[in-house]
Amino acid sequence: MQFILFVLLGLLGGFIGGLFGVGGGIIVVPILVLIFGFTQHMAQGTMILTFILPSFILAAWTYYKAGHINIPVALMVAAGMILGTFLGAKYAHALPTPILKRMFGVLMLVLSLKLIFGK
Asked: How far apart are CA 58 and CA 109, in angstroms?
């Protein structure tokens, strides 16, 4: 049964990711923590592994075919993300789980308020 729930969670995260360009961070991580009882570290690590799997290839291809990908910018951002995700992961492991969880919540709150009330 849990296998099905995890696949459905991936389906939800993938759908939201394809729809909005995000998914794992705002959908899968909180659900892994709040519903499945993962620690914040375990949820983030699990989600990061899915980034290297081919789950986003079809979505990227769909956006590419529609002319909605700036390849030079994507490559430059990806280059920065290689170092950024490494440094972020190293820093995350230095933080206690409750602090990391709160920081994640504050980030989501600030971003959501900016999107709702910003220009």
From this structure: 30
